[in-house]
Amino acid sequence: MTTTSTLPTYNGWATYETWNVSLWMQNNQFLYNTAKACVEYCGDNETPYEKFIRCMSNGEMYTTRDNVRWDSVAVDHDEINEMMAEFVDVEDNQVINHQTIPCT
């Protein structure tokens, strides 16, 4: 017997907010490069997406252009972290083409 999830999704993502965040990260060069850097440089005490949220806050960019807050509780952080992990070259764990805002 095959079991399928009955939870509603939005374009394959957990929520509209998760989809919107992923859409902006994957289709805006600046956000994409920042997200890649966050994967490589996040500390042991934070996830790549937590670092990304901090970077966006430091740059006073609190939302996507569709007014979805990066730190919205409706964003599925696990899904976004999985997507962000795919942004780096897994073979040698290098991030290419850094054009990001500084995060402290």
Word description of this protein:
About 45% of the residues lie in helices and about 0% in strands. By secondary structure, the chain is an all-alpha fold. The chain has a domain at about 35-104. The longest helix is centred in the middle third of the chain and has 13 residues, at about 30-40. The protein starts with 15 loop residues before the first helix and ends in a 19-residue tail after the last helix. The model is unreliable at about 95-100 (pLDDT under 50).
Question: How much helix, percentage-wise, in residues?
Answer: 40-55%
User: Order of helices and strands, N to C?
Assistant: HHHH
| Average pLDDT | 85
For the biggest sheet, the summary is: none
What's the quick description here?
The chain is an all-alpha fold. It has helices at 16-27, 29-41, 48-58, 77-85.
Features:
mainly alpha, single chain, 0% strand, 4 helices, 104 residues
Write the layout of secondary structure elements.
Layout: H1 16-27, H2 29-41, H3 48-58, H4 77-85
Helix pairs in contact: 1-2, 2-3
